[in-house]
Specification:
The protein is of the alpha/beta class and about 475 residues long. It is about 40% helix and about 25% strand. The protein has helices spanning about 40-60, 60-80, 80-90, 95-115, 155-165, 180-190, 205-215, 230-240, 265-275, 290-305, 325-340, 395-405, 420-430, 465, and strands spanning about 1-5, 5-10, 10-15, 20-25, 30-35, 120-125, 130-140, 140-145, 170-175, 200, 220-225, 245-250, 255, 285-290, 345-350, 355, 365, 365-370, 385-395, 410, 410-415, 435, 450, 455, 470-475. The mean pLDDT is about 100. The structure holds NADP nicotinamide-adenine-dinucleotide phosphate. NADP nicotinamide-adenine-dinucleotide phosphate (NAP) binds near residues 234 and 410. NADP nicotinamide-adenine-dinucleotide phosphate (NAP) binds near residues 155, 210 and 454.
Length: about 475
C-alpha cells in the first residue's frame, strides 16, 4: 500500500504528529493508500510558503507563467492513463470517464495559460489635463482552494489554472475521499517547473485546515466547490478576514423535453446528462419534465436506454455506471426512490441495489421514476445518484415555473426544435448555465457557475480571471 505525503514549499512532508488518513476504493472497500492528516501548524507552514512565493511569482512575466501552466497541462496529457487509474481507484468512475476528466482538467490549464498574458488594464481619460488615470489588474494573493470528491482533478485545475495565471499562489485542500489525484497533480506541478510554494497541497481534517485558512490574514481568497451548507458555513467564517470568495455549490438541474424536441438527441442527452459519474455531478439532470405530446415515446426510448446501462467496477471494460462514493450516498438514493414510491410514482427501470460478487455493496441500478410530483424529495433536492424522476406537463409555462421553483440555480437543460421557444426558454430559466439542445455544456472557454443557492463566481472563459484579480486605480499627477 502506497503512502503519499503532502506538498509544502516544494517538499513532500508528513503530519508533524505522524497521523494519517486511509484512502479506500469505493468499489471494493479496500484501503489503497494513506495520506497525512495535517493540522493547523502544517497549514500555517503551507501559507508561509505560498506567501513567500507570491511576490516573485507575480513579478514573473505573464507569458512565462503561462508557459509553466501549459507545461503542467502537457504532463497531465502525457500521464493521462496513470492519472485516470488513480482517479478510478479512489473515486470509482469508469476509466473512460476518468480519462475524459483528465483531458477536461488539462483544458482549464491550457485556457488559463493563454489568459495569463491577456490580463489587460486600462487608461481612462481624466477630467484634468494634469492627471492620468490608470487601472491595473493585479493578483489577489494567496488563495485557499477547497474541492469536492466528484471531480478530483478538474475541480482543482479550474481553480489553480487561473490563480497561477493571474500571479496568485495556492494552498489546496482536496476532499478527504479523493486526495490522490490532487497529490499526483502536485508531483506534475513540480516536474513542470512551477516554483516551490506556488502550489501546496494538504490533506487532513477539513475543519482544522479551514480554521487555519480563516485565521491567517495572508490568505486573501477562498475558492470553494462543494455543497451549499458547507459553502454557507465557509462564507460565515471567511467574513472575519473579508476574503474574496468564489462559491461553486450544489445544483438541482431540471431537464425539459418539449413536444417538438428531436427525440433521438433528447434521449441520448438525458442519459448522458443524468448517468455520467453515476449521477454524482453538480450539473447532472436531477428532474425531468416531458411534454404530454411526446411523453410516451420519450419514456419508451429513455427506459430502454437506461435499462441497457452496464453497472460495475470502473476498471471493467464496457461499464457505464460505477459505485456510489460511500454508504451515505446509497442511503440517500434509496430514500429518494422509496419516498417517490410511497407518494405514488412507479419505477419502470431499476429502483434497487445491484450486488456484484467480490465488490462492495455500493452499486445502484440506473433508475427511472415515472410520475414525479412536486412534494417528492427527488423533485426538491439533489439526489446525487443514478435516479431519473420524470413528470408530465402540458404547457411551456408549467415546465418553466417548475424548473425555476428551486432555491438552486446552477445548470438547466431543455430540448426543442423551435428557435423562438429556445430563446424564450433560455431567457426565462433562472440558472447560471442553460443547455439548449445540449446536455454537456461544460467547457474551458465558457463561464461555469450558478445563481441563488448554487453560489457565485465563474470558472472558465475570460471571466474567470476576475475571480483571481483585483483592480488597482493609479491616479498619476503629471509634474
Ligand atoms: P462538501 O461536503 O461540501 O465538501 C467539499 C469540500 O469541503 C471537501 O474538501 C470537504 O472536506 C470540505 N469541507 C467540508 N467541511 C469543511 C469545513 N468545515 N471547513 C473547510 N472545508 C470543509 O461536498 P462534497 O460532498 O465533497 O461534494 C458534493 C457537492 O459538491 C454537491 O453538492 C455538488 O453539487 C457540489 N459540487 C458543485 C460543483 C459546482 O461547480 N458548482 C462542482 C462539483 C460539486 P472533506 O472531504 O475532508 O470533508
Amino acid at each position: 500500500m502506497q503512502h503519499q505525503p503532502n506538498l509544502i514549499d516544494g517538499q513532500w512532508i508528513n503530519a508533524d504528529d505522524g497521523t494519517t488518513l486511509e484512502v479506500t476504493d469505493p468499489a471494493t472497500d479496500q484501503t489503497i493508500a494513506t495520506v497525512p492528516s495535517v493540522g493547523q501548524a502544517e497549514t500555517r507552514r503551507a501559507i508561509d510558503a505560498a506567501h513567500r512565493a507570491f511576490e516573485p511569482w507575480a513579478a514573473r512575466p505573464a507569458a512565462e507563467r503561462g508557459r509553466l501552466i501549459a507545461r503542467l497541462a502537457e504532463l497531465m496529457h502525457r500521464d493521462a492513463d496513470r492519472l485516470a487509474g488513480i482517479m478510478t481507484a479512489e473515486q470509482g468512475k469508469p476509466l473512460g470517464e476518468a480519462k475524459g476528466e483528465i483531458a477536461y482538467a488539462a483544458s482549464f490549464l491550457e485556457w488559463a495559460a493563454g489568459e495569463a498574458p491577456r490580463m489587460y488594464g486600462e487608461s481612462i481619460p481624466s477630467s484634468s489635463s494634469e492627471k492620468r488615470i490608470l487601472v491595473l489588474r493585479q493578483p489577489v494573493g494567496v488563495c485557499a482552494i477547497i474541492t469536492p470528491w466528484n471531480f478530483p482533478a478538474a475541480m482543482i485545475t479550474r481553480k489553480i489554472g487561473p490563480a497561477l495565471a493571474a500571479g496568485c499562489t495556492a494552498v489546496i485542500k482536496p476532499a478527504e475521499l479523493t486526495p490522490l489525484s490532487a497529490l499526483a497533480i502536485g508531483e506534475l506541478a513540480l516536474e513542470a517547473g512551477l516554483p516551490p510554494g506556488t502550489v501546496n497541497i494538504l490533506t487532513g481534517k477539513a475543519r482544522v485546515i479551514g480554521e487555519a485558512f480563516f485565521d491567517d490574514q495572508r490568505v486573501r481568497k477562498l475558492s470553494f466547490t462543494g455543497s451549499t451548507p458547507v459553502g454557507q458555513q465557509l462564507m460565515r467564517q471567511a467574513s472575519g478576514n473579508l476574503l474574496r470568495l468564489s462559491m461553486e455549490l450544489g445544483g438541482h438541474a431540471p431537464f425539459i423535453v418539449f413536444d417538438d424536441a428531436d427525440l433521438d438527441r433528447a434521449v441520448a442527452g438525458a442519459v448522458a446528462c443524468k448517468f455520467r459519474n453515476a449521477g454524482q455531478t453538480c450539473i447532472c439532470a436531477n428532474r425531468f419534465y416531458v411534454q404530454s405530446g411526446i411523453y410516451e415515446k420519450f419514456m419508451q426510448r429513455f427506459n430502454a436506454a437506461v435499462a441497457n446501462l452496464k453497472v460495475g467496477r470502473g476498471t471493467q471494460e464496457g461499464v457505464h455506471v460505477g459505485p456510489l462514493i460511500n454508504d451515505a450516498a446509497i442511503d440517500k438514493v434509496r430514500e429518494h426512490v422509496q419516498d417517490a414510491r410511497d407518494k405514488g410514482a412507479s419505477v419502470p427501470v431499476g429502483g434497487e441495489k445491484v450486488t456484484i460478487q467480490g465488490l462492495a455493496d455500493r452499486f445502484w441500478k440506473p433508475t427511472v421514476v415515472d410520475g414525479m410530483t412536486p412534494e417528492m424529495l427527488c423533485a426538491n433536492e439533489e439526489t446525487f445518484g443514478p435516479v431519473a424522476p420524470v413528470a408530465r406537463f402540458e404547457h411551456d409555462r408549467e415546465a418553466i415555473d417548475a424548473a425555476n421553483n428551486s432555491p438552486y440555480g446552477l445548470a438547466s437543460y431543455f430540448y426543442t426544435s423551435n428557435a423562438t421557444r429556445l430563446m424564450r426558454t433560455a431567457e426565462a430559466l433562472h440558472y447560471g448555465i442553460v443547455g439548449a439542445n445540449d446536455a454537456v455544456p461544460s467547457t474551458a472557454q465558457a463561464p461555469f457557475g450558478g445563481v441563488k443557492h448554487s453560489g457565485f463566481g465563474r470558472e472558465g472563459g475570460k471571466y474567470v480571471m476576475d475571480e483571481y484579480t483585483s483592480l488597482k486605480y493609479v491616479s498619476w499627477g503629471l509634474v
